[in-house]
Amino acid sequence: RPITISITNNKGGTGKTTTALNLGAALQKKGFRVLLIDLDAQGNLTLATGCRQPRHHAGELLMDEASWEETLITGPTVHLIPASRMLLSYEHRLNAEPDSGYLLREQLENRPYDYVIIDCPPSLGALTFGALSATDWFIVPMQGENFAYIGLDEILQCAAKVRRRINPGIKLAGILMNKFDLRTKFGQSVYQKLSANPSVRVFNSSIRQDISLMECTAFGQSIFDYAPNSRGARDLMNFCDEFLQYTNQH
Amino acid sequence: RPITISITNNKGGTGKTTTALNLGAALQKKGFRVLLIDLDAQGNLTLATGCRQPRHHAGELLMDEASWEETLITGPTVHLIPASRMLLSYEHRLNAEPDSGYLLREQLENRPYDYVIIDCPPSLGALTFGALSATDWFIVPMQGENFAYIGLDEILQCAAKVRRRINPGIKLAGILMNKFDLRTKFGQSVYQKLSANPSVRVFNSSIRQDISLMECTAFGQSIFDYAPNSRGARDLMNFCDEFLQYTNQH
Ligand SMILES: Nc1ncnc2c1ncn2[C@@H]1O[C@H](COP(=O)(O)OP(=O)(O)OP(=O)(O)O)[C@@H](O)[C@H]1O
Ligand SMILES: Nc1ncnc2c1ncn2[C@@H]1O[C@H](COP(=O)(O)OP(=O)(O)OP(=O)(O)O)[C@@H](O)[C@H]1O
Ligand SMILES: [Mg+2]
Ligand SMILES: [Mg+2]
Q1: Which of B150, B183, B216, B226 to probe the A interface (max A CBs under 10 A)?
Q2: For residues B133 and B25, what is the distance between their CA atoms, to the nearest angstrom?
Q3: Which residue's CA is the nearest one to ligand 2's atom 16?
Q4: Most CB contacts within 10 A, which of A64, B25, B151, B164?
């Protein structure tokens, strides 16, 4: 059974897609089989893997309008269940569907992967709820900006709701500081607020600002293919190592 | 009747709150009476004006659970209809309410202000729809990042839907480039894509990266009070001038 990881934050632009793409690539470099799932109607992960026009998308898969084989995209380096802008209307339907939280986890049973990484949209609706319901670990990328941690309570409450019945095993792997500079006043203040919060852990690894992390998505490449010696590559690999060490012990 | 301006973008972190706060302050410096409305449950605009614990919020006002006088906050420099995290549940109720688009514009009739500025959440639900239904002009702050303009079509479609019946007069004042550096490859590519798009206009003024624009929100001040000689202050005042010139001629 694959280990499922959800990358989630209801705040936009904090680095979910960047983390999903490159954590997936780091795990692949270590020899693991990785599946990426794009649950964001804006489809940035889908585009970042170089996939332009997916024939089917995650919403159709969840509503049984397309099969796994019809939806799955298997590129030379990446396996992906893609998103499309049609996902917005599917989220409305899922919102109205009782037990929609079970749909994704049922789809993931027995798939031939070591890790499944789900890139969530910047919202706490049916798509994120379904991801958390299917997930073993969730990661919350966060920036060192003013008000960055507002909304964290809502994320934790959503995870608690999932933990109560549908997915008692869900665990927070940690908060990942992204575009992070501990020398700035806001970086420090966000880090201190989080360290003072007993219900969260913060990864020791953080991802610094690196333009290569933005550029590689324009070429459909991971940071390791695009700029293997960049600090973005080093930071993401260090983060992957810490993630594996922590999750193998807990 | 006040002129109503909505600041909207379904993408997170593009500068809606920064624009709402400081465009409002710039208009006030010119002598106009300005009302700010925070429609984001994360309440960044409310916090940025120094307001900690609003007794009532915009959702209660729209559902007639609190009066205008009970909800309005009148500080020494700012008039504000605040947000609170309760707005999330109110948005669900508004989503289910027929004609909810009319509620905000009815509340704004005959209010003693020259300009009303609405800070929208990063979504295209009932709150943004209600803002656009009440608005004369809407502004879309956007960053010079990869994929920054994905989702713009959805914003324009939402505005077109509003224009069809409930608010035929709604106009796009322009896209405002924020944290913008035309010397970067992504800045240029976003700017070129937008300039090639006939259904949008881009403001000539853009807002450059300036840490003072983040810092001032921590002190409950506008950029003009916090750092009057900063480039953030100059950029926002230039933008205000261009906005007034354009909207007075169209
Ligand atoms: N460490 C970094 N250094 C430089 N740029 C980064 C970094 N992390 C992310 N970015 C860039 O910042 C932008 C936002 O990142 P990303 O798309 O990963 O965030 P997101 O949380 O997935 O956003 P959304 O909520 O819109 O899905 C992208 O243009 C991305 O390339
Ligand atoms: N020009 C700028 N220079 C430096 N920092 C900026 C600039 N514009 C915005 N910021 C900072 O970037 C972050 C996001 O900006 P802001 O809150 O205005 O975006 P938003 O679109 O309202 O986000 P949300 O979608 O979460 O409501 C804030 O921490 C803000 O202080
Ligand atoms: Mg994303
Ligand atoms: Mg905002």
Answers
A1: B150
A2: 24
A3: B15
A4: B25
* Tens-binned pLDDT, residue by residue, of chain A (250 aa): 899 999 999 999 999 999 999 999 999 999 999 999 999 999 999 999 999 899 999 999 999 999 999 999 998 889 999 999 999 999 989 988 889 999 999 999 999 999 999 999 999 999 999 999 999 999 999 999 999 999 999 999 999 999 999 999 999 999 999 999 988 999 999 999 999 999 999 999 999 999 999 999 999 999 999 999 999 999 999 999 999 999 999 9
Percent of chain A that is helix, strand, coil (3-state, to 5): 45, 15, 40
Nearest Cβ partner for B12 among A11, A88, A185: A11
Cβ of B15 closer than 6 Å to ligand 2, yes or no, is: yes
Buried b (16+ CB within 10 A) or exposed e, A9-25: bbbbbbbbbbbbbbbbb
Kindly compute the dihedral angle of the four CA atoms of residues B241, B242, B243, B249, in this order, to the nearest 10 degrees: 110
Q: Say how far apart CA A105 and CA A103 lie, in whole Å.
A: 6
Structure-block tokens of residue A188: 């420090």
Among A21, A214, A230, name the best residue to mutate to test ligand 1's pocket (greatest count of ligand atoms within 8 A of Cβ).
A214
Which of B12, B184, B217 is opposite residue A12, by nearest beta carbon? B12
What is the residue whose two structure tokens read 């803002």?
A: B131
Residue of A nearest to B44 (CA): A147
Kindly give the distance from the C-alpha atom of residue B211 to the centroid of ligand 1, in angstroms, as a whole number: 19
Please give the distance, rounded to the nearest whole angstrom, from the Cα atom of residue A16 to the centre of ligand 3.
5
